[in-house]
Write a structure and sequence with these properties.
It is built from five helices and 18 strands. The protein is an alpha+beta fold.
């Protein structure tokens, strides 16, 4: 097996997993639209503000380098040209400073065109970020392997944090682990884990996903030690149609070997009130207890 060159390794975020790649030198800036959509909101607005300041510095410098290009500038101060650029880029003139010669008009024309295009692009990017369908699905911190109703099972629970209705919700679970074949080669194998129930007509509160560990399951006879040795990861994907925003939403989560607990159960968070209403205590959603307790 070839050893990677540490100097050329790049860290890339794939979902919620960090991956080291070697030999892939494509910069994120070669796909700026995708990069902007994947930025967090604080980073997005930071880029927007820095870009705005940078453009005004560039155009302010151009006015400053062209003597007599702007009228009513006090003592040729650079800040005067900078703020004139701000007014021009935003197409908001206050009637004090204005282009004074041909070069000033040319630069102002270019800046106004840049401002109009920039506003259109930023409006589209902000709308794309706000309109992107998202699901607020909460996954339990741990997945559990335990005896349940006379058989060994893998289980974890999820909750719809919006408490609205996700109709025709479906879930899929996959097990990913590293295996060595007969030739001594490492392969990443992906196994689909069958669920007792992988669809629900309405997902509004909580849902416990259960995979029976029988002879056909890739988890059969696996221990905590073997899960760690095989670098096992369990990937859960949930999707459905959100009635509120009338769009398909999805969410996924990874459980590493260290997140899988043996012979424990989730604390019960559902209570039936005397009048028949159901009460859910979300403060204990992640809590687990030993089976013996």
């Amino acid at each position: 097996m070839l050893k990677p060159n540490k100097k050329s390794l790049r860290t890339r975020q794939v979902g919620d997993t960090q991956v080291l790649t070697d030999g892939q030198h494509q910069s994120n800036f070669q796909d700026p639209y995708h990069l902007i959509l994947t930025l967090s909101w604080p980073k997005f607005f930071s880029v927007l503000i820095l870009g705005f300041i940078f453009l005004n510095i560039v155009f302010g410098t151009l006015y400053w380098m062209l003597p007599g290009s702007v009228s009513n500038v006090k003592d040729g101060a650079f800040l005067e040209f900078f703020f004139f650029s701000v007014e021009t880029l935003a197409t908001v003139g206050y009637g004090v400073m204005s282009p004074a010669n041909l070069s000033g008009h040319v630069v102002a024309t270019i800046e106004i065109l840049t401002g109009m295009v920039g506003v259109a692009v930023m409006t589209g990017l902000v709308f794309a970020r706000f309109s992107k369908p998202t699901a607020r699905i909460l996954f339990s911190n741990n997945a559990l392997i335990r005896d349940f109703e006379g058989r060994r099972v893998l289980m974890f629970r999820i909750a719809n944090e919006r408490h609205n209705r996700i109709v025709e919700a479906s879930a899929s679970v996959s097990l990913v682990r590293v295996e060595v074949n007969d030739q001594g080669e490492n392969f990443v194998r992906i196994y689909d884990l069958k669920l007792v129930r992988d669809r629900t007509p309405v997902f509004a509160m909580t849902w416990t996903l259960i995979h029976p560990i029988d002879e056909s399951s890739p988890l059969y006879n696996f221990s905590a030690t073997s899960l760690t040795a095989n670098r096992t990861r369990i990937t859960v994907s949930v999707g459905g149609h959100d009635e509120t925003i009338a769009a398909t939403v999805y969410a996924n989560h990874n459980y590493l070997a260290k997140d899988i607990m043996f012979d424990a159960h989730f604390v019960d968070i559902l209570t039936i009130l005397p009048n028949g209403d159901r009460a859910i205590n979300m403060t204990r959603f992640h809590e687990i207890e030993n089976v013996s307790n």
